[in-house]
Amino acid sequence: MNTHLSINNITLDVTDGSTHRRILDNVSLQVDSGELLGITGPSGSGKSTLLAIAGALQKPTSGSVTLLPSSGKSIDLTEYSPSSRQAAALRRRYLGIVFQQANLFPSLSILDQLLVMKRLDRVVPLGGKARRGEKDKAHRLLEHVGLGELGHRMPGQLSGGQQARVNVARALMNDPQLLLIDEPTAALDSEAATTVTQLIRRLVSEAQIPAIYVSHDTEQLAELDRVVTLRDGILAQKAPAEPTLAQSGACL
Prior knowledge:
Elements: E1 3-16, E2 19-32, E3 36-40, H1 47-54, E4 62-67, E5 75-76, H2 85-94, E6 95-98, H3 110-121, H4 132-144, H5 160-171, E7 178-182, H6 190-207, E8 211-214, H7 218-221, E9 226-231, E10 234-240, H8 241-251
Parallel strand pairs: 3-8, 3-9, 6-7, 7-8
Antiparallel strand pairs: 1-2, 1-4, 4-5, 9-10
Helix pairs in contact: 3-4, 3-5, 4-5, 5-6
């Protein structure tokens, strides 16, 4: 497989008054196309911060995150200030982000939860009319996540597991070149969580894009291609999923 994402020597220092802390210390990783990489570690170890940097949501003190999309032109996701228009454009064009909370719009149907991503990309009001191809694509994605018959329903009519699947489908609506997933199953029971994780792995493999999955859940991490552990901002180990689980489960 060709490497599509390179996290290169990422360091993040923060200062609060006279207190200086190193949140991430020279972290380097590579993620291949079609690979679902897990990041685990104790709370406060820098997992979600690293994900935010990879998602152009936070700028590191030093280092870079380079994405090689299917177009073949490499992109430095740390080049711009996270609040800049350029960074926002990179996120819309290249990234799909699945946050821990689905944060679905309560007044929009499940189908419209996906269509709103395209409307935002075209700077169209939320109530604006969707293009025919966009609606077809939204229907296909809902079919892929097992919700093809529920597009007309409102978020309050779905279970937590179903809302999590909408969250995943929405992140894929703009054909991202990189998928970033932060604790997507934290509020779900074990069965629903495994269903969502297996769905993510299948979709990542089919799309042949790199993906990073942050989680404390050793059962879900066992479903991934590879797992690395962060401790105190330092990359502690790199291993296939099952060997890593046996060790990281003992330290969490």
